[in-house]
Structure formats: C-alpha cells, structure tokens
Design goal:
The protein is built from 6 helices and 5 strands. With about 200 residues, the protein is α/β, with parallel strands linked by helices. It has one domain: Rossmann fold (3-Layer(aba) Sandwich), CATH 3.40.50.360. The radius of gyration is 16 Å and the shape is globular. The protein starts with a strand and ends with a helix.
Length: about 200
C-alpha cells in the first residue's frame, strides 16, 4: 500500500491580525475528516525569507538562503497545495510571491487549489496566482472557495458580528468538490512523477 498523499494548506500572509487563520483552520478541520490524504498547515510566518536575491536563477542552482532551503524542502514533501490567498490591491501578497520565487523543482507537476478571501472573494488574487503557478509547472484546479464573494457578507459577518465559517454552509459545499479534485489530481500526478523518475 502506498503512503497517503500529503497536502499543504498554505497561509499566504504574515501580517499581525490577519484573517487567513480563520479559513485555513476551517479548511483543515474539514480536510482532516477525509481518509484519502493527510493535510497540514504551512504558515509563511515560519519561513521569514529575505527578498529573492539568489545569484543565479534556480533553474541552474538550488537556493542558498537557509530559511528558503527549509521552505523549499517542506514544499517538496507535499503532493499538492491549497493556497489560502488574501487579496491585496487586486493581487496576491508580496510575501507569497517572494516565497514562490524561492521555489523551482519542488512544486513542479503538482496540483494547487485555492481559498480566496477579500474583495470579490479574493478572485483577482487567485487569478494572478494561477498565472504564476502555471509558469512554475503547477496544475491549478478549477474548483475554489471564495470568502466574501457577495458584497463581503461572509467576512463582515465574521469580523463584525461574531459569525464563524460554519455559519455559511455554501462555503463547505464549495470545499468538497475542491478537495475531491485536489486529491484526485495529487494522486494522478504523483503516479506520473514516480513513473518518470
């Protein structure tokens, strides 16, 4: 029997008071009920990397910074990803872009899904992230969860009215097909990677 798939839920912002912990923990609670993969949180706060300034592109040499090496090693152990993507100025956070710039082969031919939050549910950030990941040879999947999609109702409810992610069942309903697809793609792409080693 092959080992279980490992999926990382990536927290994409490091600022104090971030909202990202809320959807990340909510998704982890849902995902851990599954039997087909192991899920874990991967927090960019644990990887305080400098701005990318490697001497040569990573296609030619591995990253040299010690923290970036640890980040790359963690991402290499995972078979797929869910990026919990905050939307800043219609795009992803600078810290996430910088973290991705420190990766190369560690993420290639692996799938990614998304939980976006912010204006229009973080949809613009997710779209930018899809383009970046495509260049990195990451398979970005169709299904996603968008928190705050309709006039920020969910986020306002949680931030101002004490509501929880579980008070919005449509979010859970969106998470199921996203996780189903992610596990399918993670399994298929892992088999493909192993077949070409």
């Amino acid at each position: 029997m092959s080992p279980k798939l490992k999926i990382g839920i990536i927290l994409s912002t490091t600022r104090p008071g971030r909202f990202g912990d809320t959807p990340a923990q909510w998704l982890l609670d849902i995902a851990r009920k599954r039997q087909d993969a192991d899920f874990e949180l991967v927090d960019l706060r644990d990887y305080p990397m400098p701005f990318f300034e490697e001497k040569v592109p990573l296609i030619y040499a591995p990253v040299e910074n010690a923290v970036a090496k640890r980040w790359a090693a963690k991402m290499a152990t995972l078979d797929g990803y869910v990026f919990v993507a905050a939307e800043y100025n219609h795009s992803i956070t600078g810290v996430l872009k910088n973290a991705l710039d420190h990766l190369y082969s560690e993420v290639q031919r692996k799938p990614a899904a998304f939980v976006g939050y912010g204006g229009v549910g973080g949809a613009r950030a997710v779209e930018h992230l899809r383009n970046i990941l495509a260049e990195m040879h990451v398979a970005s999947l169709k299904h996603a969860v968008h928190v705050g999609m309709i006039e920020m109702i969910e986020m306002i409810g949680m931030l101002r009215e004490g509501k929880k992610m579980t008070d919005y069942p449509h979010l859970r309903d969106a998470a199921k097909p996203m996780l189903d697809d992610l596990v399918w793609w993670a399994s298929s792409l892992k088999a493909g990677r192993l077949a070409t080693v």
